[in-house]
Amino acid sequence: MAQDKKGSRFWLALVIFSLVGQVAWIIENMYLNVFIYKMFGASAEQISLMVGASSVAATVTTILIGALSDKVGKRKIFISLGYILWGISIVAFALVREDTIGAIVGAGASVSAVCITLVIVLDCVMTFFGSSANDACFNAWLTDVTQQSGRGAAEGINAMMPLVAILVVFGGFMAFDLNQSGAWTAIFIIIGAVVLCIGVLGLFLIEEVTPEAQENKNYFGNIIYGFRPSVMKQNPILYVTLIAFAIFGISINVFMPYLILYYDVALGLSNYVLIMAPAVILASVVTFFWGRLYDKWGFEKSLVPTLVMLSLGYIVLYFFKNTVLVFIGSLLMMSGYLSGMAVFGAMVRDNTPEKKAGMFQGLRIVGQVLIPGILGPMISAFILRDADVVIGDDGMEQFIPNSNIFLGALLVIVVLVLVLALLFHLIKKSKTPMPIAENDE
User: Fold this and answer.
1) How far apart are CA 288 and CA 294, in angstroms?
2) Which of 36, 79, 212, 234 could form a disulfide with 355 if both were Cys (CB 3.0 to 4.6 A apart)?
3) Does the domain at residues 8-208+219-428 carry the CATH identifier 1.20.1250.20?
């Protein structure tokens, strides 16, 4: 059993692998959308398809590889090798250019459509390696190595990394003109090389915390373990938490795929990086401390304020276009989003059965990635079906994301509140002592 006092090697591994993993995910979740929008004129429906396909790939991968790592009783090799292959797959995006693809498919084909299709396929390949390394095994390793008394602190750091990664990516992308294909080539090569190198580093940095090997158990049985009705009946709080987490994620995915495009295209904030950087820094600080509040306050008291912050951020972003108010709305939204992720993540880990972390990573990814990744973009694609359009410099028609995506995200939070009422009831019921039967004499 891991000790509560973690050494510097653990914290360094947590920060590096969480940060670099989130940088890679931001490239996928926020900038691949920008890539196919700016380079190939992708529609909202095509962006929704890419996000949904990637979510399915992430879920299937996490279920299969998570159970496999439990059976083998190893995490380190899956994490390190996964990051190496993840980096190689990111570099492969540098090959998707209209000039190179056009030379292969010929002038009679729709080069833009071919390029969009290739990006979607490569996205699924990249997701396979990334989910194997990060979603399945890194998260299982983090569950193995942390104990409940200190889990909120580790989860706070883990949950703040997406914001830190946004800051790193935003800052790094300032040097590139995202309207030029050469800039994207450089970006994919640099990010891919960094992820690959971190995978090599993991061979020396990560301390293996071996879960109980499951050689004598059926692998298929491990895969479906978390989906068995009997297991659901034994862990009702875990499953309702995952449902609530999924609804929370749907809200985020209504706007997140279009956030950069909204700032850049709809608001015309060419300097959105400078505007967002302070918001990201402040939200990161909030998220770091919020994980510790989970340890101190518990789930209910630490979650409600995050939803209030998130909802207020949505309201400000929906009603206002002023730069200062967009900054305030973005700060509230990001603080609520990442703090909520920390609270939900810690709650899921606390209710995951011991020595079965790998088996439950697939279940976690269904709630955290698959359902939100499909339903969220579907909602936003419906919202943006009649969005205004603009003709780009290359003559292609492109839609303009509008603030209705934040209204849609807010309405999903209303549904979440209803599910949380049930979850809080279950938690309260679980804490109520069972009555002691009197002995008949």
Assistant:
1) 11
2) 212
3) yes
